[in-house]
Amino acid sequence: MIKPKGEKLLNEIKEIVSQCDRCGTCLPVCPLFGVKDIEKVSARGKNNIARALVEGGIEADGQVSDTVNMCLLCGTCVSNCPNKVKTDEVMMNMRQYFADKKGGPGFKYKIIGKILKDRTAIKMSAGSLGLIKKVKLNRFVPYGMAPHKVTRDDYLKHFGGPAALKGSALTRETTLDKDTKIAYFRGCGMEMLFPEAAADTIRILNTLTKVQLIDNVCCGLPHISHGLQNDFFELAKKNIQLFENADVVVSDCASCSSTLKHIAAYFADDPKWREAAENFSKKIMSLSEFLVKVGYKPEHHLDVKITFHEPCHLGRGQGVKKQPRELLKSAGNYIEMNEADVCCGGSGTFHTDYPEIANAVLDKKRLNIEASQAQIVVTECPICLIQLNKAAQKGGNKFQAMHISQVI
Question: What residues does the 4Fe-4S ferredoxin-type domain cover (predicted)?
Fold first, then answer.
């Protein structure tokens, strides 16, 4: 029987899983069930395991912990569930429970958590990865974590010719007030893995207004997802204070913008931070969401076939679906691929924790991209971009993967 420690977490878990009717609607839509075909990887299976754990039917052992960790947290089950059972939230609470029980989430996640809490460590990592790419040793870095460098200039030269580089930007019809303070949230993944794309984001934002560049800390998603809740709250409070004077905070990482928009919910019961957290979350906008809101028009329309992979944290996490597609339709010949909103298997560190399963999920995505006959697949998330780069290489480079800031 489970001991009283972690009683609040267990009560929250019980309240959510009790809403599951075990109907099985989640089974056919779960990306993991689609490649693994085992009940325990589905939302229904995971909720049954969580219910049994809370009620004392099973012990909190390593096997249960492994099942809890084998989840993409993509939210597909939640959006398709008739009762909207928040299985992703259950899994995060379960991970926190196991971390509290064992005195931490495990060595790997402790190390990752420490690195992502330290701005100096992030900058050093970004520099190291940049050097590895420069000397062309990135192929030796596992899991595609030092992706091949593809820049906006490469894109324009290949698909638009030299003239495209010299063309002037189109006039933008914005609704920005001259006094509106726009800040850029620099995500860890964008800074370390795709600094060129991050630079393009800043360039675009600066065509609209003088963007504030703040030395922010991690959004905290890797921490809240892996049993490092205290670190998450510490990071959230720092970011709330750092962006206190900004009116709008734009992020080009779907995971960051989704997490920051949801920070208010985590402080709902904290009288000291509740109002500040709510004000902060209301400021957050994803890049494509912001650009469409202010009337931004892509600088060039090129004769190139483009499709879009919708990050889980962008579409399901924020309801931002139309905006990136609207931008891409103005940037090239847009093609909607089949299952554009299905997870690519990246999900933070999932693709390194369970590479075989992640690759099986990714293979389905690759086939859908190839079937669309798109030359470029675009996304708005660095981990998705890692996966899509791997898919492009495996498929013989029939397409290129790029961040949305590089093509608009």
Answer: 11-41, 61-90
